[in-house]
Please model this.
Amino acid sequence: MRKKKRAEEARQASASGLLLDQDQEKLTMQQRIDAFYRQSGGPNNPQIKKVLERHLLYGKDHGAPGRKETVMDAFTDTIMGDPLLLMLFQQWNNRRMNQASASKAGISTAEAETIRQLQRDVLQLKSEMGALRELLEQIAANVEPPRSAVAERVD
Model:
């Protein structure tokens, strides 16, 4: 009786546009579960395990036909379907792989991070030295030799 009342309230709220997406999703899921039980003879049906197994294998909403969708499948589909989640997952996975490779080499994560920071610092110093070299070459090209040196050369 309570479920019917909630379902009726949800239908009314849905009709008036007051339901949030999450509430609509719950309602839709509940409606799907109710429909499944109506079609299968209810939760007390002695063959419910077979019906449920068949539904999980061949149901349109459960992945590839003939194969049970696992939690990992659902996780992968969710990650692959959202570019932001995919980017975050890739960053997390890269960090995890770096930590694993560092631990195999016998380096602690703090030491590995120190090495990476030193590598970044060396690259930055190389870049700055190149810029200084260019600046010195420009200065040298624009500077005239002292007059005393010019006079000595002419004589």
About this structure: The chain has three domains: 1-45, 70-106, 107-142.
